Amino acid sequence: MVAKKKLVMIGNGMAGMRAIEEILDANPDMFDITVFGAEQYPNYNRILLSPVLAGDMAVEDIILNEEQWYADNGITLHMGKRIKKIQRGYKKVIAEDGTEVSYDNLIIATGSNPFIIPIPGVDKEGIISFRDIDDCNAMIEAAKQYKKVAVIGGGLLGLEAAKGLINLGMDVTVIHDQSTLMNMQLDQTAGDMLRSSLEEQGMKFSLSTLTTAVLGKERVTGLLFADGTSLECDLLVMAVGIRPNKALAEESGLYCNRGIIVNDHMQTITDASVYAAGECAEHRGVTYGLVAPLFEQAKILAWQITGQGLKSYGGSAVSTKLKVSGVDVFSAGDFQGSPEADVIEYLDRSGGIYKKLVLEDNKIVGSVLFGDTADGPNFFHMLQEGRDISGQRSSLLFGNSVLGDSGHSGIDQASRMAPDTIVCGCNGVTKQTITDAIVKEGCTTRKEVTACTKASGSCGGCGGLVEQILASVLGTAFDASIQEEPICGCTDLTHEQVKDAIKGKHLTMVRETMNVLAWKGEGCHVCRPAINYYIGMYWPLDAEDDRYSRVVNEKMHANIQKDGTYSVIPRIHGGEAKADDLIRLGEVAKKYDIQTIKITGAQRIGLYGVKKEDLVSVWRDLDMPSGFAYGKALRTVKTCVGSEWCRFGTQNSTAMGIRLEKTFDRSWYPAKTKLAASGCPRNCAEATIKDLGVVGVEGGWEIYVGGNGGVKVRAGDLLCMVETDDEVVEITKAYLQHYRETGKHNERTAPWLERIGLEKVKQVVVEDAGNRKALVERMDLYLSTLTTDPWQDRLQDEKQPGEMVEFKEYTAIEIPVQVVNA
Amino acid sequence: MSSDMNPETGTKWHPVCQVEEIPQFGGRTVRAGQTEIAIFRLGDGRIRAVDNRCPHKQGPLAEGIVSGDTIICPMHARKISLESGEVLPPDSGCVKTYPAKVEGGQILLQL
Ligand code: SRM
Ligand SMILES: Cc1cc2nc3c(=O)[nH]c(=O)nc-3n(C[C@H](O)[C@H](O)[C@H](O)COP(=O)(O)OP(=O)(O)OC[C@H]3O[C@@H](n4cnc5c(N)ncnc54)[C@H](O)[C@@H]3O)c2cc1C
Ligand code: SF4
Ligand code: FES
Fold first, then answer.
1. Residues 6 or more apart from A329 whose CB is under 8 A from it?
2. Is A816 within a domain?
3. How far is B47 from chain A (nearest CA, A)?
4. B106 near A CB under 8 A
5. Residue of A565, A815, A818, A821 to mutate when probing chain B, most B C-beta within 10 A
6. Can you give the pLDDT at residue A302?
7. Which atom of ligand 3 is nearest to the CA of A643?
8. Domain limits at A235?
9. Looking at the DSSP assignment, which residues form a beta bridge with residue A671?
């Protein structure tokens, strides 16, 4: 067992702890983790401080990770201990009370400090900012004694504080130096509407007002403004903005600008062992102050630090969907728009609804919504996609039936959303993920969905939408198979129903299956190959492969090209070529006048432009096995040179790849199946975008599954780590057999894994040893039937006397006739 | 065994091969001078012949999947009627068909 690395986290806040959760998710055994937090509380949801201030929630309600959680995960938690020094030379941190802890990796997530405007008198008593639980408590205490409060700052924080203080019975005036409230998120119209709504709730405003001094002896008694006027108050809340908390990092020599500068993998650019994330980090010149981008950063950080390879953070496009003092607002992109901008607006002042889209070339470039924000995610989605909306101009703002808060406006809203629309902006959760949680994980309440997906777990603004999705999905999904589409137009049956019949009725022939299942007609290029695969999968010993239910490439054992010629791609196990094979490839290419010899994208050699009649002779002269480049079969097992040659190699990835390729040679799957083996996490064989890929690490292999480099790139998930080559083969057998049995024809492992769920696959393939053994046995039985090479079969066939030749299509029938009118 | 010339078209029946040389539910290429013909043996035993070039992008129809009396092009899966030579909706176009018959196990094409 390799000793664990030591990971220290400074800052027990929202970004930092999300990073820890992601790290535990990726690899729970990699680090010994120690967390320092300056606050006296475990990690809590800072966004919900406003309801705490307003008395709607208690501190216990907003705790995200209880102390027990830290203990359960083996994390040492130091609450109320502020780190005062980072000694990067010694790789250790020192807390104010003298506690010292050394680290291999350090993460800095110290958040921000409230900005205090530097005017005379700001050091007086009775001035509070709004950042943490202590600030909340201080305001609650003050409200018992004092009555008149001024809040400087008309942004989100100031208004939230003001609302809370009104609830506590105080007389509140908000002072803002701009003419529009929340001018970073709202235009003038929306800002005005927000203002009237808040005035109705008793809030007072002094806009376009610059504060120049705090009055009073020891304690604040009033404010002085630039225009000479003044305001009496006995409590002052400063909410004018935040500044990244970088001092500690800066003192330790980490390069900082506005914040701590990090690269695209969230590493500080000064020291690769030190990471930073959250509000304290500056990435590509940007610091963020909302949780959604910080959570994205946390994900990338975890990916990088657990050595899952390089995944980069490209910055975040931010949309804001907030509930400000009970009013919903949304904004994204260039919501102001220039005076000439093309704008679509809907305004109902008395109803309290305002919607605005700013367009450029008929594409949404910005949006503000006030009162009804349910369409916000849709608009943001269209904005990011750059969708042309010319056809929807007249309806876009009205699509949405009734008014409502955060989508409580009828089921329609949820069902119209595209699956990849982000529902929870804070946590980047799509509608699809939520639907999956409901359908596959069986979630039935909003709380369960939150536990499963994190949707609505931060600001809670999307709670209504989540409930709508629940309603719309649970309303119809009692029988999941009803929703599933039939295989194709030739039948009403789904893949699962056909599979069940093949298994249950022991069907071993394609035509028999279609008869028994009352097919309409003779089947097509979609259903017949599917049935042919399923019978072979269930009945490896007695299924009768139907060549005429295979598409051209599989029927011919070569890939058809656009001019009707074929390509020939032999196996070159693990990409390790033999001199004799290369010489023969060259000779064959010359002999048959083959136009193109290409190193393929999958690490082998392809001969292109082979005439149909020449295929069999080419195979004979090549004398190499088929590479199955044409089939829903094992394709290539890509390898890198690995420990035999490479200075970084930790495992013999070439040998591993060759072994895998030989083991699974000739096997068929629901869709083409690609494997790879890399010798170290640099991953030169791209193992993390393969259906299954192994990456060598010191002392073993990491096994990644469900990767895909094709149309829709998907990085593989870590299935497990194993120590020996034998274990790699065993897990691969079990995994591929599970895929063979549960995959739908034409479904590659990437969508398959998302459908089945990684956890389920882990359980079936890795954790349940008995089941794994059974899968391996079934795979071994299947592999034992794959004794002959298809190209050799054809060669043998050709040697039969005339009539006996089975596969005659490789030759044309010549007749000595000139066609009339040809 | 060729029959007499059809006076209207100038075509004649020509022997091609034995029925067994075409796999049931399968097709083969017949080359007659410069012309390539795809000949099929349908599930019910009928023999049908069309030009071996899909009107879409010249896909070799002989390699397609036979379904009833349609052939599904191996290149991009257009469906073509082997009776009329027409590409089935939603696509359109047509291929030339050739009359075919079987006499004593021998396939004949009218060319
Ligand atoms: C020959 C080759 C390109 C080359 O010139 O190098 C190739 C050629 C074709 N690819 Fe590929 N792919 C080739 C490597 C890849 C790779 C890279 C790899 O395997 O490492 C990928 C991305 C990796 C992946 O699959 O995840 C790739 C992703 C695709 C896809 C998208 C699959 C997906 O799941 O999204 C298709 C389309 C499909 O399968 O439906 C495709 C389909 C095809 C087809 C079969 C298209 C077709 O139907 O005609 C091409 C066959 C041409 C032929 O006659 O060989 N090819 N294709 C490469 C394979 C040769 C070999 O096996 O040695
Ligand atoms: C009232 C309020 C409402 C908000 N509403 C929203 C909203 O609706 N939507 C939204 O997206 N965002 C909202 N935010 C912003 C959001 O809460 C922050 O963006 C997020 O919490 C930042 O996370 P972080 O981990 O970077 O910093 P924090 O969560 O602030 O965590 C940093 C932690 O590090 C600790 N720390 C600092 N220095 C040290 C040290 N030297 N040693 C040990 N510990 C240290 C701090 O005490 C703090 O606990 C709101 C914020 C507030 C205050
Ligand atoms: S993956 Fe690692 S071991 Fe393999 S070639 Fe690349 S650097 Fe070398
Ligand atoms: S060539 Fe036949 S469908 Fe395209």
1. A182, A185, A186, A190, A194, A320, A321, A322, A323, A368, A369, A370, A373
2. no
3. 15
4. no
5. A815
6. 94
7. 3
8. 127-240
9. none
CA distance B108 to A101: 91
Written as six digits, the tokens of A391 are 């056809």
Total domains in chain A come to 6
Cβ separation of A552 and B74 shorter than 8 Å?
yes
Report which bound ligand comes closest to the CA of A610: 1
| Tens digit of each residue's pLDDT (9 = 90 or more) over B2-27 | 456 777 777 889 999 999 889 889 99
Give contacts of B 64-83 with A, CB under 8 A: 64-68, 72, 74-75, 77, 79
pLDDT given at position A821: 64
What CATH number did the domain enclosing A262 receive? 3.50.50.60
The two three-digit tokens of residue A613, written as one number = 């009649």
Residue in chain B lying closest to A802 (CA): B21
Pick from A522, A560, A814: which is nearest to B68 by CB? Answer: A522
CATH number at residue B52: 2.102.10.10
Tokens, residue A82: 């502020």
Q: Residue A447's pLDDT is what?
A: 80
pLDDT value, residue A465: 80
Residue A783 has, within 13 A of its CA and on its CB side, a CA count of 19
Amino acid occupying residue A563: D
Longest dimension (CA), chain B: 42
Q: Which of A639, A644, A645, A683 to mutate to test the pocket of ligand 3 (most atoms within 8 A of CB)?
A: A683
CA distance A400 to A423: 16
User: Which is nearest to A703 in space by CA: A33, A30, A29, A27?
Assistant: A27
> Is residue A799 a part of any domain in this protein?
no
CB of A132 within 8 A of CB of A37? Answer: no
Counted domains in chain B: 1
Q: Residue A457: give its domain's CATH number.
A: 1.10.10.1100
Q: Which residue of A has its CA nearest to B44?
A: A522
Asked if A204 and A120 count as a contact pair (C-beta separation under 8 A), the reply is no
Which of A83, A92, A110 has most ligand 2 atoms within 8 Å of CB, for mutation?
A110
The whole-number pLDDT of residue A484 equals 65
Residue nearest atom 50 in ligand 1 by C-alpha distance: A559
The two three-digit tokens of residue A444, written as one number: 């039935």
Averaged pLDDT, groups of 10, chain A, 822 residues long:
88 96 92 96 92 87 93 96 95 96 97 93 94 94 94 93 92 95 93 93 94 94 94 95 95 95 94 96 92 92 86 82 79 87 90 91 92 84 86 72 34 69 84 87 81 83 78 55 70 92 93 92 93 96 92 94 94 94 96 94 95 94 96 96 92 97 97 96 95 94 94 91 95 97 95 91 93 96 94 86 75 85 60
Nearest CA in chain A to B53: A564
Residue type, B50: V
The CATH number of residue A744's host domain is 3.30.413.10
Say which ligand is closest to the CA of B80: 4
Nearest-CA distance A563 → chain B (Å): 8
Domain presence at residue A603:
no
